[in-house]
Amino acid sequence: MKEAIQVLADLSTLVFVVSSMLSLGLSLTLPQILNPLKDVGFVLRVLLANFVLVPLVAYLLTRIIPLDPSLSIGLILLATVAGAPFLPKLAEISKGNIPLSVGLMVLLMVVTVFYAPIVLPLLLPGVQVNPLEIARSLIILMLIPLAIGLFIHARYESIAESLQPYMAQASSTTLLMVFVLMLVLNIQSVVNTVGSGALLAALLLIAASLGIGYVLGGQLRDAKLVSALGTAQRNVAAAMVVATGNFSNDPKVLTMILIGLLLMLVILMPLAGEIGRRATR
Questions:
Q1: Which DSSP symbol is given to 51?
Q2: What is the pLDDT of residues 168-200, one digit of tens each?
Q3: How far apart are CA 197 and CA 267, in angstroms?
Q4: What are the chain's domains?
């Protein structure tokens, strides 16, 4: 039974990521995505938040909270990877700037591919990170569908307009499935970590990341919102690639990453929804 649920969860995640990227590409243009990133100050602040301050917070948390070494490794992995495919959906739910969220997602994802292989071996001696493994999954699942959507929108706008609502609906439906299935699959792992400090560490990392992103987002509401959500939502897929390649015999590392994923979904999705409702009012 658990194996069937796992297969369904993996399939739902795949459909969510691909349909989300296609939906975004079908509704946007390349200039819309790139123009917000011309603000050099904003870009530098976001990079500082995601690749300096958040990893620093995670490192300090592993020193303050008495975590199992394997759980500490999982927390560090989460903190050093950014550019999650959930960011545009969070921006959509919160009535934020979707083109900015897509541009920021791509920027953080590309930087992660080059950043993680350099920094992770320094923070976690002995860890080997293959940038091609991270890049391959992100390119195939995210960049290629986004590029296909952008191409269709640029060349065949009427087709893009007819396809986009179906892709958006598939994205929303599979996101709900991912949330429910991940909760069902990993609730016991979460319960087993009660008292270990893992839940507290993950909660503090998410809260600190959200605050850091918001403060460094600048003065504009859209920029602050996208920066906050983009900094708090870490790239779990990239973290899992590193974890399975280096710690396949240590399930606690993967458990910490999954705890982070669940808490991000539980916290950030409702938060984005509340922000969106207030914006509508």
A1: I
A2: 888 888 888 877 887 777 777 777 777 778 889
A3: 18
A4: 2-272 (1.20.1530.20)
